[in-house]
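Bit of a strange request maybe. I'm writing a small parser for structure token strings and I need a real example to test against, not something I typed by hand. Could someone generate the tokens for this chain?
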Amino acid sequence: MTKRPWNGSIVLILLGLSLASFSFAAEPLPPTHIDDFTGRPRVIIMSDIGNEPDDQMSLVRLLLYSNEFEIEGIIASTSTWQKTAVHPETMHALIQAYGRVRSNLLLHAKGWPTAEDLEARAFTGQPGYGMAATGADKLSGGAEAIIRAVDRDDPRPLWICVWGGANTLAQALLHVRATRPAGGVDRFVEKIRVYAISDQDDSGPWIRCEFPNLFYIVQPSTQRGDDYYYATWTGISGDVYYRNGAGPDSTTVTNEWLDANIRSKGPLGKLYPKFAFIMEGDTPSFLGLIDNGLNSYRRPDWGGWGGRYVYRQPYGETHAIWTQGGNLFSRVTSQDTVAGEDGREYTSDQATIWRWREAFQNDFAARMDWTIADYAHANHNPLVEVNSQSGTTPIVIDAEVGKPVSLDARQSRDPDGQGLHYKWFFYGEAGGSDANLATITISGADTAQAVATATAVCRPQWLPLGQCSGNGTAHIILAVTDDGSPRLTAYRRIILNVHAATSH
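Reply from user aminoacidic:
Good idea to test on real output. This should exercise your parser:
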């Protein structure tokens, strides 16, 4: 895309209301639903690659994390910035470069797909612009690939990351609706999760209107890009170009840093271009799917590397979607308040991404090291264990106001034998869809052992109107960082279900 002038049982959302013209039987699930699938996320990328450098940059990063996903398709698409051409040849060139480093990547982790397998999953989408390029006789190879992937007998949802226009997805949905009964359409739609980098043609709004039960993350926009500056996804690197907020340290998203840490390293690094506007504006669509312990893909209001969103109905939409905004009165919004590089606090949607920037850029640099170095001469992420629970899934703990909860990460370890540094922090904005946002304190926040104490089931509203009822939720993030070069971080999310103190 172009950035010129987005256990309790772990259960995801089908959004919206039925249209009068299409009466679907299925009901959308509430925003409290959490995706509890296991295994690697299934992913399809739709990219207007070739219109400017940043899609190519994002695809390089995606390939360096291809062991984290099951890539079902990489589809060359059009967009408002590239209306009459698609460029699958650029995708193939990057995949071929990946093939030259795959054997070295296997020294560091398992699960890397072969270049041949990725080549077979590269497709061309709708060759023209927007909904005008869709229709009964216009089923592209990319649209067919989407249909095959959704229809595959697999309990995992299919994430569709939209880096350009969405008309190839629109074509797939049109075809399914024309060839299947209503129940079959429902089953098809409920398996899809969309994260779109704004609206880069007219098909995104059409999809959301025609298929209101479809899970969709987006900040709706004009096709011209006039309001990209407002979008959450610009937090990846857009603060210099868009001038959309102070706070973040831009050091790791400059061409100088990228020259030293990415472009200088091996065949894949050489194909990482200099940005024209911002670095990797499309990357947030898959960044939150990486299994780093944050688990934000399970519910968008939890927050993680790909940003944080709330479930609401924006102006101009027919129903609620996962988007930006929120209720300022109750203080449940899509914005995070984060300490900036100067130590002052800043509040913005972009902060939900840039707060993690140092970690995800160091992680990227380490992965590029994996393409050229053996295991002993590269760094690898810590393995986090909390209260004797290993793995990366969230830990859910019942908590009572005033009673301390002990948290112990001393069994965490580093695969390279390096020292570890611990940071427990209260992610106060996370998880407001299913309960009151509780308040907590944390002692020992910079040690391997911490104690969390809930102080209230509900945090204060702007005006003290109405009473707090029900339980609260409080998300604690443990970030464990090693002493390597670059320093790498892994996380664990602890969710406290907070209830009022019992009377004696």
